């Protein structure tokens, strides 16, 4: 069994995990494994509903010295003023419940919006959404951790935790989520920073790691924002929770079903469908 060491209120807790992750990428190859990862949303290269200004493109992804490099640049791409990168596991992996961990160094700059998050299957049933980590690039020592859900009246709600710590642009840190049927717990560098026991999702979700530019959360880049800017990822690992009824999919899907919003034709590089109303 593997061991996860968690620090809560100064106390060290030891939790057993299965012997190895069920899904992982250490980014030790020569390039991004596009048989495992998609390089954009299932519905296309952007999420216009959040005001993001970039188009995600494979050319913004590279692997160097054991790191995934996601590069945002002031470079027009398919009608948008910025190009950036994203990896998405929807073609090959999704899971209900478990422990999800990313080790990364985040970028600094107004208008930059790095994130590690989970979206549901089938695509188009949003929410739920679990944001393991989001950062506003102009606030390099602050993190956002969020849960999106619908209340009893069907209204979209968002529960958000914030934590201010070190400068996350100065070095590598781990960002993790433990998701079970009774609780969702967020960790930064192995320390619990936020917890929810309400509206726990019970459907499979897939993984996204991206560097957005602009948008309702980060605001517009300004003259102080340096381009190109980079988010560097050391690894992404997912474990099953031995104490929860996990469901894991590792089979290859060319496109996922998009319900309840059928669209006749897929955009270039994507599948048919529409994005969620809000991130």
Describe this protein with a few key phrases.
279 residues, mainly beta, 6-stranded antiparallel β-sheet, 20 strands, globular, disordered C terminus
Query: How can the largest sheet be summarized?
Result: 8 strands, antiparallel
Percent of sequence in beta strands: 35-45%
Structural category is: mainly beta
Discrete helix count = 0
Radius of gyration: 18 Å
How far apart lie the N and C ends?
A: 36 Å
Helix percent reads: under 10%
Question: Roughly what is the average pLDDT, rounded to an integer?
Answer: 85
Sequence of secondary-structure elements: EEEEEEEEEEEEEEEEEEEE
What coarse outline follows from CA principal-axis ratios?
globular
